[in-house]
Predict the structure of GyrI-like domain-containing protein.
Amino acid sequence: MEYEIVELKQNRVFKGKVIYNINFLDEQIEANKRNIRKEMMKRKNEIIDRIGEYQTVVYNRMVYQEYGKIIHYDYFVGYETENKNENIEKFDYKKEQFERKFLNLNGKFAKFCLFGNPEKIVPKFWKELDNLELNRKYDVEFEEHIPTDNPNFMKINIYVSLKKLIKENIKMEINMEWKNYENKLEPCITIISDDKNYKNYLDYFLVDYGGIEWNSLNILNQINDLVEIIKEFVEDKRTKVDFTRETFYIFSIDKKILEIGFNFDNQFYDTVALEDFYKIIVEWKKFLYSIPNQKNKIYFEIKEKN
């Protein structure tokens, strides 16, 4: 399945019909989807402020399991309308025959281009998409059905929202020293970065481990396991994590460096970021081994470069 990565920064407004809270396992839903698409095709001229000729299908309010399988979603079919404040303010939900959908499209999408009968190729596409390793955001995904002279042959653009990747050129320093906390010497790691976003990722990282301190006795074995997992990804010996443990860690590209979880799969995507983080975690591991008293707590400080 070929696609291109596109960056969208759009605010769009649509009018149409919606099917709420569809169960992904409902095999009969395709008939309902087909009926709503046909209804909107017949009634498109009733949308007075319509500016688009092609039909748009929107999937949103997705509920999905942690390994990425969608289980519930809303299905909207409609046409783009004028995006003006006065129209939005005058919109009367009681009198309006169609529902209005506001889409704030801001971020990266994988764009797929299909050609053929939408009744056949679109359901097949969504089934095959599950086999493609994409860093999906599961936020909003949509289709553009662009008609041709043949009603059974269309161009269909499908946009799949993606999570934001960490920058590849992150610069960071790690300083390790003993500091006096509460009249007691404790090991301290100071992380200095020139990337504000990366600082935020590390903030999340520390919070996930219970605030600003770790108990080195509890995490030493966990870090050993983590180092081995990351090393396998860096060396291309592993493409996904497919085992379950009582406690383990996810390398999450979009908003957190690590998070505690119970199921995870296909979470490692950015090799450069992994290599950087692997170096960091190895240094932490070495530092932990150097602590004379394993009951000591490790304190972290995060700073930005000026």
In short: The chain has a mean pLDDT of 65.
